[in-house]
Each structure stands twice: as C-alpha cells, then as structure tokens.
Write a structure and sequence with these properties.
Number of strands: 11
Order of helices and strands: HHHHHEHEHEHEHEEEHHEEHHEHEHHH
Radius of gyration: 27 Å
Strand order of the largest sheet: 3-2-1-4-5-7-6
Shape: flat
Strand content: 5-15%
Length: 470
C-alpha cells in the first residue's frame, strides 16, 4: 500500500468515526436537552441545523486532525505517539465544539454543559483511537512480516552499505538496489562489498533509476574514506524530492540534528527540520492565509508602487531572478525592480550600500523593504515561506559552500521573505559577509519554532516602519 492510499484510509476512518460519534452525541443531546422541544427524535435528527452539523462537524474534525500533523507520516507510527496525538487533538476539537456549538444552547442546568462535553470527549477519543489503532497495528504487522515495504535505494557499495542493507531489511525496508558513488572506485582499492547484480548504476544515472523504480527514500551509506564527498553528493540529491537518510555517528558533522537509532542503525533524515508535524502544518496554513490577505488588502499599494516604479525609470515593473529554494529546487523570485535595466549586464553582483545601479525610488523601496512585497506571490505558490533563510543565486551558493559547506543544511527549510539573518544582519555586500549572515540562519535552523517565526515577523515589521532596511 502506498502512502497516499494509506492516508486516504486514515482520513475515511476518521470521517466515519466522527460521523458516528456526532450521531450518538445527538441522540444523547436529545435525551438530555431537546426532547421537550421536538415532537420526536426523528424530528430532532431531521432538523436542518442538526443535519448541517452532521455533515460539517466531521469535516471540522478532519481539519483539526490535518493541522495536528497526524496524516503527515502514515507509516511507522508510534503507538504511544498516536495515543497522545489523538488525545490532544480530540481535547482541542471538543473545546472548539463546546464554544461554537454547545454554548449556543441554553440547558436547564449549567452542569449539563459538563456532561455533554465529557460525553463527547470520551466517545470521540475512544472510537477515534480504536479506529486508528486497527489501521496502525495492521500496517505495522504488514511491515514487520515484509508483506509491505518501504523501498529504498542505498547510495554506496562498500562495507557500510552492505552492513546497512541487512539492518534495513530487518527493520521492514526493502532494498531496491545500490548506487555507486562516482568517487568510490577511485578512492578504494577493494571491489564493491555488495553483489554486482544489485548495483543499479552510478549517481549520474540516478534520475533514470528513480523513474524505473518506485522508491520511497534514499539512504547514504558511504565508507569513511569517501565521506569528504558527502556534502556535494547530498546537494545533488535534494531535487529528487525524496527523503534522504544518512548513516552517521552522534559526533558527526551535522550539528544538532537528532540521530534516530532504529534497531541499532544510526540514521539522520537530513531532509527533515526541527519543526513538529503540527508546527509544519500551522506554518503552511499561516503562509497561505497571510499571503492571500496581503495580496488582496494591499492591492492598491501594489498598484501605486508599480506605477511609481514605471515612472521612475525605463524597464519592467517586476524584477525576476532564479534562486535556489527548498531541497535545492530552482524557482523564480519576484521583486519590485530597484535597479536600472542595464544592471543585469554586469553579471551576478551583490548590491552595495551606495550602489549606483539602484534607482532613486529603488532606494526608497529597499529602505522600507517594500521591494519584497511581490514575494507574497511566491509564498502563495509554495516556493517560499513568510519566514526562512533568504534564497540565494546558484552562483553565490557555489562560492559560499567552498568556505561553509554546511550552507546546504538551509535547503531543508523553505526560504522566506524575511529571516533571522536579514533581521539581525541585513543585506550582505560580499560573499564573506553572506557567510557571516549565515551564522544567524544556522541559528534559526537549529532553533526553529512558531514562536521564533513570530518574533522574526515582529522585528521585520519594526524594520519596515522605521526604514532600517538598508
């Protein structure tokens, strides 16, 4: 069973469970409150408001479960984690229903609210958790019996790759094959430790290999002698949009990323960041809602700035440029043009404080960060987030990583309109200054949270209002 199908099963089960719970709750509510207002139970259940609730309430539960992050990772769920995730989500949902639905009714006794709330909470939690447990236990049994697999390709053909293949199989993974790193043959004198017929090719052919195999994740298991090639190799894998796991040690180079040991296999998922599943979904939801609101409410400002840019100098209103975003994927960033049109002819150049290429009105836009406003369209499209490390051009990335290869870690986070680096450091005029600013972005990466995002947004608003953007 693939990921989408399993998520669909969870969603349908939760919807059916929520529908049954709300029907049973209405029967209880009729007995406690509504039997004197309706001639019969059927009249109550067929009442328009009750029928509307029978449809909308289960859908609201699905929204709450989605925001909680329950559907993000359907495979290999922890039973304990599932218990507490369901408990918290049901508690929050019941509180919402209490204030939006139940408090609109006036019972004979205030204590009846407590009875209704706890009846709904217990019923919703027990039936929801039971339904989920059946699916989760069934899924785990299928995985441990090797009837279902998560297909992985192991990059590496040496002793580490050979050892990991057995450990991965015992943990419920299936090795689709091995891929040789381009430097393996030149850096080692020994033959590959894995069987030759299991080697699907080299990293250069990985795109074609992935098209021929249904792969869920990539696992890097390089030997110690060629680990120096890990970062360039890792960067080349991001654009395949697959989870990337690395066999590493707790004292390895990846800073404070947590090492998850599965049956003795020290694995780091380097495509994950420090956000919880709930925080990921909340951040995504906030990005979409705020972007839509800004694009609609500030549309007159967009029109005025566009006209002013057009009057100030000849050329297009918007500046478009390719940047490298989430997992190394290129995208086109949008800004209000702040330079003369012939500035691009000089090639990739960072903007200096007194840059003559900047137009008079462009200086005003940069001072108040108004040139960044079109990037709310990038956020709505999903290329960017409100808060995250600033995306750079490939030209500068190639120079940054020569001195700071850990820059690639930032590609595990969707780039943002504003960032901790932009707030605390500002614009960088040289590669060395970009590396200095990188320290703040790495600090953000290691301490990501919604609270920190809100802090950065508050600082950004202060910069915009005071005109300290330059």
């Amino acid at each position: 069973m693939n990921k989408r199908r399993l998520i669909t099963v969870y969603i349908l089960t939760d919807f059916v469970t929520a529908s049954i719970v709300w029907l049973l709750f209405n029967l209880y509510r009729y007995r406690e409150m509504a039997q004197y207002q309706f001639a019969s139970m059927s009249d109550f259940l067929l009442f328009f408001q009750v029928l509307k609730g029978q449809v909308l309430i289960p859908l609201c539960w699905l929204v709450i479960y989605f925001i909680s992050g329950y559907y993000n990772k359907p495979f290999r769920k922890s039973r304990i984690g599932e218990f507490f995730s369901t408990l918290i989500a049901v508690m929050v949902g019941c509180v919402v229903i209490l204030f939006t639905v139940l408090l609109n009714e006036l019972p004979d006794s205030f204590h009846l609210y407590y009875k209704l709330f706890f009846f709904l909470f217990l019923l919703q939690f027990v039936l929801t958790y039971m339904g989920r447990s059946v699916i989760t236990n069934y899924t785990l049994r299928k995985l441990w019996r090797h009837e279902w697999f998560e297909n992985v390709i192991v990059i590496g053909t040496g002793p580490n790759a050979h050892k990991m293949s057995g450990d991965l199989y015992e943990s419920g993974y299936r090795i689709a094959g091995f891929v040789s790193d381009n430097h393996s043959d030149s850096d080692t004198d020994t033959a590959p430790a894995v069987k030759p017929d299991k080697i699907l090719g080299t990293v250069d052919r990985l795109k074609d290999i992935l098209e021929n195999y249904n792969v869920d994740a990539l696992v890097l298991a390089l030997d110690d002698g060629i680990k120096r090639n890990l970062m360039p190799l890792l960067y080349s894998l991001y654009h395949y949009k697959k989870p990337i796991k690395i066999m590493t040690e707790k004292n390895d180079f990846l800073f404070n990323i947590k090492v998850k040991t599965i049956h003795g296999i020290p694995l780091v998922d380097v495509t994950e960041n420090n956000f919880s599943e709930f925080e990921k979904n909340m951040k995504w939801l906030m990005d979409k809602i705020i972007s839509i609101c800004v694009l609609i409410l500030f549309s007159p400002l967009y029109a005025c700035l566009s006209l002013r840019v057009k009057i100030d100098s000849r050329g297009p209103v918007f500046f478009r440029q390719e940047r490298i975003g989430y997992r190394g994927k290129p995208f086109v960033i949008y800004k209000f043009r702040t330079m003369y049109t012939d500035a691009a002819e000089q090639g990739p150049l960072l903007t200096a404080r007194e840059d003559k290429r900047v137009t008079p009105f462009g200086r005003f836009l940069r001072k108040y960060r108004l040139d960044e406003l079109p990037q709310f369209w990038n956020v709505l499209k999903g290329d960017m987030s409100l808060v995250g490390p600033r995306p750079e051009q490939r030209y500068y990335i190639e120079r940054i990583v020569q001195k700071a290869p850990y820059y690639y870690l930032l590609h595990n986070v969707r780039p943002g309109i504003t960032s901790w680096g932009m707030v605390k450091y500002g614009y960088a005029e040289t590669v060395d200054k970009m590396i200095e600013r990188l320290r703040y972005d790495i600090l953000y990466y290691e301490n990501m949270s919604l609270v920190l995002d809100m802090t950065i947004l508050i600082y950004t608003v202060k910069i915009v209002l005071t005109g300290k953007g330059v």
